[in-house]
Amino acid sequence: MAKYNPQEIETKWQAYWEEHQTFKTGTDKSKPKYYCLDMFPYPSGAGLHVGHPEGYTATDIICRYKRSRGFNVLHPMGWDAFGLPAEQYAIQTGTHPAITTKKNCDNFRRQIKRLGLSYDWNKEVNTTDPKYYKWTQWIFKRLYGTWFDEAQQKGRPIEELPIPADVEAKGKEEVRKYKDSKRLAYYADAQVWWCKHCKIVCANEEVLNDGSHEKCGTKEVERRNLKQWLMRIPLYGDRLLKGLDKLDWPQGVKDMQKNWIGKSYGAEVDFAIADANGKPTEKKLRVYTTRCDTLFGATYMVVAPEHAMVPELTTAEQKAAVEEYVHAAALKSDLDRTELAKEKTGVFTGSYAVNPLTGTKIPVWVADYVLTGYGTGAIMAVPAHDTRDFDFAKKFNLPVICIMEPDASCPVDVRPKVLAGEACWAADGTYINSQNDTLCLNGLNKKQGIAKVIEWLEANKIGKATVNYKLRDWLFSRQRYWGEPFPIIHWEDGEISTVDDAELPVLLPELKDYKPGDGGQSPLANATEWLQVTDKNGRKGIRETNTMPQWAGSCWYYLRYIDACNGDAFVAKELEKYWMPVDLYVGGAEHAVLHLLYSRFWHKVLFDLGLVSTDEPFQKLFNQGMILAFAYEDAAGSKVPTDEVEEKNGKFFKKGTDIELKQIVAKMSKSLKNVVNPDDVVRDYGADSLRLYEMFMGPLDAVKPWQTKGIEGMNRFLGRAWRSVVGDSDEAPVFVDETAPEAIEKVMHQTVIKVTSDIENMSFNTAISQLMIFNNEMMKMDKRYREPCETFVKLLHPFAPHIAEEMWSILGHNESLTNVAWPEADHSKAVENTVEVVFQVNGKVRAKASVAKDMDKAELEKLAMDNDRVKEFMNGKTVVKSIVVPGKLVNIVVKPA
Predict the structure, then answer these.
(1) What's the rounded Cα separation, in Å, for the pair 677 and 51?
(2) Per-residue burial over 807-824, b = 16 or more CB atoms within 10 Å of its CB, e = otherwise
(3) Model confidence pLDDT, tens digit, residues 354-401
(4) Given CA atoms 82, 85, 86, 90 in this order, what sign does their dihedral have?
């Protein structure tokens, strides 16, 4: 047979799989199911780099293995194709985003198919396809038509919302407003980051600490109030937290989700605003605090610059200073504002509030370290026992009153300073200075104090116990063209309605100009004919011109894969019930919070409405590590593109100079010219070599640097595998049905056990190591024994499917390996019958030997004594004693004769 030729073999088998629909999803529901999901990619113009196939190869190995174990496997692929890059390209060139997106998807599909990944392409989805986003719009309508029942802790149809009698008495319009106030999806003014350069709303995460926009790099970013669609995701905060407990996810991801949700227990407290004489008025400023027990020590208040009460709290004398400060705060990111190390800034409003426990008049300040996104956007400040409050108080000369005597953990020299208000103590202790006519906390600890204060606040109708979440309502609209249109109409009488299901999808109109308006209008506002509608009664309205964010399509795509061509439902009930939940979800850790949180939220709503059968979508999650590449930097830390680097005597220099460079590991990027294209690797070494190398680089969840030498090693291993099974002579190989030698049988069964266990545990690198060991033993065979050859090929198949299929064919089989049963191990034949023992003289190892596992002490001692190497160190000496540990060692103790 000819030598191993990956390009010829891989082209042949990819064509075979496509022609025979080899990976079409099974429909026999008597079989167990396995739903294996990759996080679908955004199809960028750059195409795949070698980091993409890492996760895809891992899931492919699992899927090929599961098929061999008799599972129905659902292994789909699709495109998260709405996104800003295609729209920006459209603005620059006039090319419709759909054209760019299709071109990119076609390229991604071509590249993925070249890797031999066993996707069922009949299940392919594209979030920009109207047949897909019809159902995204349909699901949005269900979210819009749902309210959250706090008592039942579930979403229910808006038709089941109880309407209070006083609301109903006010008429139809008030009932409509009441319903709108309860919907999970709602339309309201929202404060957003607006980039004047890009003319789009930016996510908080896209605004960097220096106030610049991550996408364009300019600092033309400001806060604006715009009409937006939002979703009340915090209502599901408790269920999103509890649901994590039953999921097989990395603990780090669970912790990130918990921190993002940020559940806390505290109290809302109303502070009366003081009049000119310091007396309480009817006007209230509400705060949320987790430490209501420290109210006796509250010496000032702080409101966020965006707080709705800032204008009415600001006196005429302070108006100019406050307005200037509010404007400056609007240019800062939330991350910058809450940075603990930053210098505290603020301005006095001119107003005072009254501490409800002490009756003391305390000033109200505006400061940017308080955010509207948490609690009520206002805090009571207790500088003696909160570090940020203490720093602020010291800077602006505000009172510091100690109300908690530090516990024993406080350093002796710090204690008097805390008591004097000269230092901050944020840990536990016992209360002092915490008493009024009706409440005394003195002598209690923190837990006791919190309970007692909440009881007092509720009895006096000043406050109440409250559960709060850092998780805020989800901003769910963008001022862009290339996104899903909302199925919403705004009528001239103020009513908002959804488009009938029969009229879905609401299609994106054709436009000549994709630029957003300067005032925040979406490009869709220019589509006059599309925009304007009239109902059957002549009432005029306009369509919603915002589009949904890219998250929308990715919130439910795993459900559409199950039934991708269904035109009558987003998924058939019986299919959803069979396939859900997803058994394994693999993707990058960068999606650890938002995508997973949003998907879980949507899924729980669909579950509450009886539209899906599981409460959670993804049972097991695995985050693959990032594949990095070598890069180079000079002494100043400036990066140098790889095509400007040359190697001399093991060192790296900038070409044409004596400037020595440091080799580092960094993310692949076009600017550093260190992106490795999988097309090039497949062309030079074959897809099987690429697959094996990416799995052999190290543990799947580790960060690893790409090294081309490593893939050369995998290519050599496949060449050896080919020679051991097929040979490289012109003659056809001859396979014998005789029983293989014991040594071969033993390593064969050991390999079946090891590779099976490693695939189940996603330890692919060690599975490949064992395959190499097996192949090394096979290379020693004097004949080609059929059983070990076939077993090796079956085990190799999930990792390197093309060469395995070819070798299976040469072994005389006509069917694809895809559904051939996985080999079973005989554990009794995998047991080692020999062990290696060491021979020592006076505790130092002098020789080693392989001996029968059950060799007794006397035989073992004799074998050691007769060993030539041991004899050298015993020559002329007297044996004092021998220490024999069967299966491990013989230590001969000698002394001079």
Answers:
(1) 9
(2) bbbbbeeeebbbebebbe
(3) 999 999 999 999 999 998 877 899 999 999 999 999 999 999 999 999
(4) positive
Peptide bond into 581 cis (omega under 30): yes
Q: What does the alpha-carbon distance between residue 171 and residue 813 come to, in Å, rounded to a whole number?
A: 77
Nearest Cα neighbor of 704 from 590, 628, 630 is: 628
Helices (H), 738-800: 742-760, 764-778, 786-796
Cα separation values, 536 from 539, 709, 796, Å: 7, 71, 66
Q: Token match 């051991």: residue?
A: 724
Distance CA 773, CA 662 (A): 37
How far apart CA 863 and CA 852 sit, in angstroms, is 12
pLDDT tens column, 709-762: 899 999 999 999 999 999 988 888 999 999 999 999 999 999 999 999 999 999
As a whole number, mean pLDDT of residues 152-158 equals: 97
pLDDT in tens, 172-207: 999 999 999 999 999 998 877 788 887 777 766 567
Q: How many CA atoms lie less than 13 Å away from 566 in the CB half-sphere?
A: 16
Number of H helices, E strands in the chain: 29, 37
Distance between CA 792 and CA 819 in Å, rounded?
16
CA atoms within 13 A of residue 242's CA, in its CB half-sphere: 7
d(C-alpha 317, C-alpha 8), whole Å: 83
Q: For the purposes of burial, counting CB atoms within 10 Å of the CB of 221, is it exposed (0-12), middle (13-18) or buried (19 or more)?
A: buried
The label of the residue with tokens 């129905």 reads: 72
Query: For residue 699, which phi and psi values (nearest 5 degrees)?
Result: -55, 145
CA-CA distance, 177 to 199, in Å (whole number)? 31
Q: What is the distance between the alpha carbons of residues 551 and 789, in angstroms, rounded to a whole number?
A: 48
Q: What pairs with residue 155 in β-bridges?
A: 148
- Which amino acid appears at position 104 of this protein? N
* Element (DSSP H or E) covering residue 573: helix 573-579
Q: Evaluate whether 254 touches 244 at the Cβ level (below 8 Å).
A: yes
Predicted pLDDT of residue 205: 57
Report the distance separating Cα 582 and Cα 563, nearest Å.
14
Burial of 231 (0-12, 13-18, 19+ CB in 10 A): buried
Measure the CA–CA gap between 293 and 34, rounded to whole angstroms: 52
Would strands 889-896 and 877-885 be described as parallel, antiparallel, or unpaired? antiparallel
Least confident of 222-236, 330-344, 726-740, 863-877: 330-344
- Using DSSP, state whether 452 is helix, strand or coil: helix
CA-wise closest residue to 159 among 179, 187, 189, 132: 179
Per-residue pLDDT averaged across 620-628, rounded? 94
Between strands 660-666 and 651-654, the pairing is antiparallel
Backbone angles phi, psi at 171, to 5 degrees: 110, 175
Instruction: Tell me how far the alpha carbon of residue 330 is from its chain's centroid.
Output: 29
Instruction: For residues 680 and 144, give the distance between their C-alpha atoms in angstroms, rounded to a whole number.
Output: 48
Contact 805, 816 (CB under 8 A): yes
